[in-house]
Amino acid sequence: MTSLAAPQQCVEATAPRAVLAGWLTVLLAGLFCLNTAGGWVRLSGAGVAIPHWPVIELDEGRKTLLPPLSEAGWTAAYAAWAGHQAILRAKIEAGEIHGAALGRQPESIGDFRSMFLIEWFHRLLAAGVGLLALACLGTVLADRGLRARIGVPVGLAVLLIATQAVLGAALIGQGTSTRWLFLHQGNAALILACVLVAVLRLLGSSSEGGRPVAVRSLVLAAAASTWLMLMLGGLLAASRHNLPSGGLLGLDAGPAWWPAASLATNLLDNASLHHLVHRLGAVLVAGMVVWAMVLAHRRAAPERTRLALSVAGTFVALQAVLGITAAVMPRGEVVVPLAHLFLGHVLFLVLVLAAFDLKQGQEQTQGVPA
User: What is the pTM of this model?
Assistant: First the structure.
């Protein structure tokens, strides 16, 4: 009886992990969609079409979670947007924010309706992702084994999602060109990483192979640099209004340092400096990924790690093409910058996966008695 009970207990213990891993994978996909929708909102200039959060405030104090369902409702929503635009213009005149913070100016009520629905869909998707994350956390907390295995990454993901919501609400008052959007970008990448680590812990480590410490250190450095590059991209998206037309790639983009400005102003608003650091950072990340890929093959790293680094190398090349294309395209284009953002998050997660495999293998090796 004992020999038959042991496999049955193993199956019963594995089943909840497999189910939860599936739901966490759905959560990961939802987060990707949410980040892409957020980039769409930012690049389309629709970020302040709904000036209130978390509810939509209309005339006479009416509040709702749904978009307007009548022409009168749309007129009230447009009036609320116009009132918020007046507040932003006052901040622009006071020098608190840049003129680009007003976002895209709709040509008609129909154009405003499209902007409104873009932002509303982003918020709806965010609410769905948040509820799914809470459900996953509740499942984890209810099971002692799951708490021990993935309690930390799932709990941290939910905490960061809450932070993301608060941060997004705080940024509404700064318009669509706020310099602090890079914090939103970096936090989103960390959420993705936490959920991915939880999935990988449930599914187990990769196939057997060597776990060279040098490769793992290099992969961790590449992942950290990619995360910084994602935030720098968000900072650059907000500072591009400082660049002259046609000066995005050449030295004519302007001085890389503003002598009359403060250190904080240069770091947050100098788009020429952002471009320079972004280009140098891209070369650095590419070099680290290629070198890690070579070392992983030479030192017989796990097969999944070698595959992940090979994929990362391909993504680096694609990112270079997309980055150059996005830089020379006219401002207001959405598709290429959005693809650049999406692929940047994918590259970051691929490097997180490779680092996880190398770490797990190293821990397993250290746990084996001599």
Answer: 0.88
